[in-house]
Write a structure and sequence with these properties.
3 domains, alpha+beta, Alpha-Beta Plaits, about 300 residues, 8 helices, disordered N terminus
Length: about 300
Amino acid sequence: MSTAVVVATLALAGCSVGGASSQGDADAGYSQSQPAEESAAGDSAVDDSAAGALESAREVITTGYATITVESPADAASDAARIVETAGGRVDARTEYAPTDGDAGSASLTLRVPSAKLNATIETLKELGEVEEISLSTEDVTTEVQDLDARITALRSSVNRLTDLLATAKDTKVLIELETAITERQGDLESMEAQQRYYADQVSMATIDLRLVSEADAPVDTPNTFVSGLGTGWDSFVAFISGLLVVVGVLIPWVIFVGVLALVLWFFIRRAIRRSSARSATVPATPAAPVVTTDRNVDAQ
């Protein structure tokens, strides 16, 4: 087998991979433009079964987060894990915080829920306590998945053809070129298959970040009546007094320390003043020099 044949084979293999990608892009573009054309025509009926099949063929990644106020975050975290596992999901991460400052602690969980059971699972999770916040978002990756599938199919065919050529090659140079090409394509194929597994996992399992908090950490409800306003005012007053007591407790040791330091300084300063006064009292007074007066009139006489 000549080198030219190998080069031609490698070129055809590369073209087949690129052609599959282009064909996948074209098919994706056609599938996206077709609904617009049918809508513009306005005279074609939509088949419910076909629409259902198209909807089921969509590849959608769902993510979200939720905050729920519960009495005991630790117990609620265990209940949430049990609910998700019962639905066929799993807990990818779980963090619990011990109670501090009078609250009951908190917990954070990263939940992976089967997309088909997401709504039912969320409704069950809402029963854990009072829902403060919940949000879901979706990302359509149908085009990416279809393009990746086409690339993988073409690349597998290319690797198979090169493997068949490798089995019949006799020339050493040809063998080296074929092995190099197969190694490169096998690496690309494994990378694409890893991406394919990632998309499959993300599409089949929704990701929900759940935060469980106690009443102390729950968002404060805005008062809208006299009674609720009175309760909010009382809570604010109690919180102010509690904070003031904390500040006083922090300052008392410093006040005592500064007071003791000032007392010591005052003692030494007073002692120095007394010593200075005692020394001044024991020193004898120096006699004054006589004053000589002259009378100019007497001298003149």
